[in-house]
Amino acid sequence: MSDEIDEILLDAEDRMDKAITVAREDFATIRTGRATPAMFNKIVVDYYGAYTPLNQLASFQTPEARMIIINPYDKGAFAGIEKALRDSDLGINPTSDGSVIRIVLPQLTEERRREFIKVAKTKAEDARISIRNIRRHAKDGLDKLQKDGDAGEDDVRRAEKALDDFTHKHVEHIDEVLKHKEAELLEV
Distance between alpha carbon 5 and the CA centroid of its chain, in Å? Predict the structure, then answer.
């Protein structure tokens, strides 16, 4: 196979890997019954006029399975952090004693668990769509190489088979991550 074909395949696989990484990060923000710092990865705080990710403004501790303690590095950021937490879609109510912010996660109701599973399925479908778009883009590149005479039909066919294998492998990976997240959400 030619260097151009290898380049297209490597680029496609790299972009599919990144799509999986983004999907994992999205799944980490979905709340389960257990407190994890990853739940707060997508929360941004208005910090002196600049929107800053919460994980850059504070440290996190999880002394119990359903409790998390947020310790802001700058005490001036307290009000902004509390507001961002209340306004988030996590459904939490932070309490503060002036030095740390405590969050006790309530037990998830069956209805809430089902809602979170729907959110997870939507995020998984978004990841699958992203992977299929990457495949389509790479296939267009391969077709163009063949049309321009830069690659033979057999080489392009082999490359398309490899591309389909990458795609199938990455979609299966997304399905596996989704299955794990669903099990985590249904765990009481």
Answer: 29
Q: Do 100 and 92 form a contact (C-beta atoms < 8 A)?
A: no
The string of pLDDT tens digits covering residues 115-151 is 888 888 998 999 999 999 999 999 998 888 888 777 7
Q: For residues 101 and 97, give the distance between their C-alpha atoms in angstroms, rounded to a whole number.
A: 7
pTM: 0.69
CATH number where 136 lies:
1.10.132.20
The H or E element containing residue 96 is strand 95-96
Residues 48 and 68 in one domain: yes
- The position carrying tokens 């392009």 is 156
Phi, psi (5° rounding) for residue 90?
A: -80, -15
The range of the structural domain enclosing residue 83 comes to 37-104
Crossing angle of helices 110-147/153-186, nearest 10°?
170
Question: What is the Cα–Cα distance from 119 to 155, expressed in whole angstroms?
Answer: 41
